[in-house]
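Methods: holo model generation. Sequences were used as deposited, without trimming of termini or removal of tags, and paired with ligand SMILES retrieved from the corresponding compound records. Each pair was processed once, and we did not select among multiple samples. The sequence and zinc ion SMILES for this entry were:
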Amino acid sequence: MPYKNCQHILEDGHRCNRTFGVRTIKSSRTLCPEHERKDISKGAGVRKVQGKQDMMRKFLDELYTFKIDEIDKRLTRMRERQTALDSKIDRVIANFEKLDENFTKMKTLNTKITESLYDKGPEYHDKIQKQILTLNNKIIKIQESNENDKRNRRTRKDME
Ligand SMILES: [Zn+2]
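and the model returned the structure below.
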């Protein structure tokens, strides 16, 4: 008696492969008696196609979920970095504006000093000098805060 191996695809994706006897080698039977019975009760082709479709759907679902998760994580990271960068740029711009404003004040005061040397008394001169000192300290503070920003960024990078 000739033998064949069952072609039924099991749920784990492997072939059943069970040996079964056929009357002649030309027999069109491809399934072992157990799977032939199941096939007859459910409809051979339909069941096979449905099984493959189910497997494909499950695979795509998993792939989709995985990809979406990955993309989500990346987007979140990018958004966080963007926000950090934005607020940093805002701070730097604000500092530059403050600096610029103070430099303008400084220039005005310098002009006043020059004028005062000619037109006004030494008391007025002292008053302006004090104002210049205050401004100078402000500018130094702003520059220091810019330096701190740079240092913070370096530290943050090191931690990543
Ligand atoms: Zn089988």
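The longest strand covers residues 3-5.
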